[in-house]
Write a structure and sequence with these properties.
The chain is 0% helix and 45% strand. The chain has 261 residues and is an all-beta fold. A hairpin with a 5-residue loop joins strand 1 and strand 2.
Amino acid sequence: AIYYAFGSASLQPYLAPLEAPDGETTLRITCTDQAGNIAEEIRLRFKVDTVEPEVFGYFDGLDYTPENSSVWVNMPPILSLEGSENNMMINYSINGEEGVDYELPFEIPEGENEIWIYGMDDAGNIAPRLFYLVKVDKRVPFIEHSFSHGMTNGWFLNDRSTIELTAVDEDNRSSIVKVYYRWGSEPSNIYKNPVKIPESINTFYYWAEDLAGNEMDTRSIQVKKDSTLPLIFLDTNGLGDGALEIGETLHVDLTGSSDDS
């Protein structure tokens, strides 16, 4: 008969294939013959690991949750990975590129990133995959201005002249969320429609910010508008009843109503 035991447990008859417990253990085996002779005990030490490992990710510079994964950020976060067991093999892939063995924390690149993380322990048990969606945009948004009407000698003459602000989406990343403008020292406004140019000489300021929090430097332009038609006043000195005698001289004084524009 054949007898076995795990660790320090009592020997028991071997009747069917054995299932070893998890962890490090020693299998003791012996046997007896019909005469009652007992064989020298054989000891086999080994380790069994059927526990599924895990991989954990930690972001520095980003409070990541699945709910905010669609949010753009303007500072590339640092991702650190850690296994639930010692000496785990951890591998990550960004946007379907070839996997990279994890050694040190790494910076998430610019753009929209799908990050897949894989792990395996020494026994070959596979960890559940981790997935992160991280969007990074460090580029400042840019706004251009244009005018609805042309200028004459640097002045807008049409009363309906406006300034239009247009986003230049060169990086095709996070969208511009707000565009602001103001006249001189007046309070700022959110741009929604073309802005009518007021009369006289004024300074127009405008800037923008995107969903990642990047803010464009304020730009300014000076605009001049005079849509009031000038008038000419005629002063006829000595015209009297509207008729001139032969040999008389008519003195005419012309005065304009407009300023230097």
